[in-house]
Amino acid sequence: MSGQMDSRSDGRSDGRSDTGSDGRSDGRSDGRSDGRAANRAGDRAGTRTDPSAGSEPGPRADAPADPLRGDCANCFGLCCVALPFAASADFAVDKPAGTPCGNLAADFRCGIHERLRDRGFNGCTVYDCFGAGQKVSQVTFGGRDWRRDPRTARRMFAAFPVVRHLHELLAYLTEVLELEPARPLHGEARRVLDETERLTLLPPEELGTLDLDAHRRLVGELLSRAGELVRAGVPGARGGKKNRRGADLMGARLTGADLRGASLRGAYLIAADLTGADLREADLLGADLRDARLAGADLTGALFLTQPQLNAARGDTRTVLPARLTRPAHWAAAAPARQRARRPAGVTGPTATRRAK
Q1: C-alpha dihedral over 324, 137, 96, 204, to 10 degrees?
Q2: Is residue 68, in this structure, part of any structural domain at all?
Q3: Calculated CA dihedral for residues 322, 161, 126, 76, nearest 10 degrees
Q4: Which residue has the higher pLDDT, 65 or 93?
Q5: Could you tell me if residue 326 is inside a domain?
Q6: pLDDT tens, residue by residue, 85-125
Q7: Mean pLDDT of the chain
Q8: pLDDT bracket for residue 251 (50, 70, 90)
Q9: At what angle do helices 153-176 and 212-231 cross, to 10 degrees?
Q10: Domain count of the fold of the chain
Q11: Is residue 67 scored above 70 in pLDDT?
Q12: CA atoms of 351 and 84, how far apart (whole Å)
């Protein structure tokens, strides 16, 4: 989900990267097969059980096609319970961490899923857990839910954001394995991916002591090198004009701009007008695209662009997307009217702290 909750602290996503300007916020040949470590979690679901979680697993649907995308049917509503949110343009009410959302039904489904935006919960339509919800529910805790066994609640809610961060890193590493120009890094990327997958399978107590920042920096540095290899093949991409890393471009008028191969890592593009812009092979890792206008923009091959980033932006049927991403359902209904850029709470400018820069 999005909005006042910053994914840097609790796993909620505002469309930015959890790894900051060097690490994830959505870009994935044989990388999907080379990155099978990320897929093994779905195969192992139910084989790793928290010893204290009991022996009666909850009902489980078939494993999803992509274990790095949220699968609510196999999750115990963790994003709706574990994470906090504040009344804002993205959420209608305040909710503290560890408290179930009032819209969460007994079967762990959202009672207003089809009306979230109408009811003031835009942030819920932006968020994606990268498959961490089903991993924690079905693997870490062996299918035992926090309602039937309240003893699991605290540890389950603490494990969820950690695994969410790790799954986001898995998505980036899988993408690296699909980037042909980054082939010299594929061996290293596979090793780091396997290690990241191993970390997601740690028991709750070990997840709680994991040095996540150190691992994020390790992955972020690898992503930086992979991005440079890709952008090196784009004419004019290495010049200073296209290095807008961390730039404050809130509300910027970039209609039809040539940003092919540009580095926009960690850039603030909130409400920027990117209508018709050429963003092919642009590095969008951690770029804040909330309310950015992407109508008619070309995002073919955009690096490290995530679904939550797209969900937070405003596009249309003419927006060209990477094949791995899905056109948000609400784009068709998005109003094209211009709106004044607003700096989100806590953001004071381009020097605002970002993780793993």
Answers
A1: -110
A2: yes
A3: 110
A4: 93
A5: no
A6: 999 988 999 999 999 999 999 999 998 888 998 999 989 99
A7: 81
A8: very high
A9: 20
A10: 1
A11: yes
A12: 26
Range of the domain at 210: 7-231
> Could you give the angle at the alpha carbon of 321 between the alpha carbons of 192 and 122, nearest 5°?
90
Beta carbons of 304 and 26 less than 8 angstroms apart = yes
Q: What is the 3-state secondary structure (H, E, C) of the chain?
A: CCCCCCHHHHCCCCCCCCCHHHCCCCCCCCHHHHCHHHHHHHHHCCCCCCHHHCCCCCCCCCCCCCCCCCCHHHCCCHHHCCCCECCCCCCCCCECCCCCCCCECCCCCECCHHHCCCCCCHHHHHCCCCCHHHHHHHHHCCCCCCCCCHHHHHHHHHHHHHHHHHHHHHHHHHHHCCCHHHHHHHHHHHHHHHHHHHHHCCCHHHHCCCCHHHHHHHHHHHHHHHHHHHHCCCCCCCCHHHECCCCECCCCECCCCECCCCECCCCECCCCECCCCECCCCECCCCECCCCECCCCECCCCECCCHHHHHHCECCCCCECCCCCCCCHHHHHCCCCCCCCCCCCCCCCCCCCCCCC
Q: pTM score, two decimals?
A: 0.78
Residue 310, in any domain of the structure: no
In a domain, 238, yes or no: no
Confidence of residue 53 (pLDDT cuts 50, 70, 90): very low
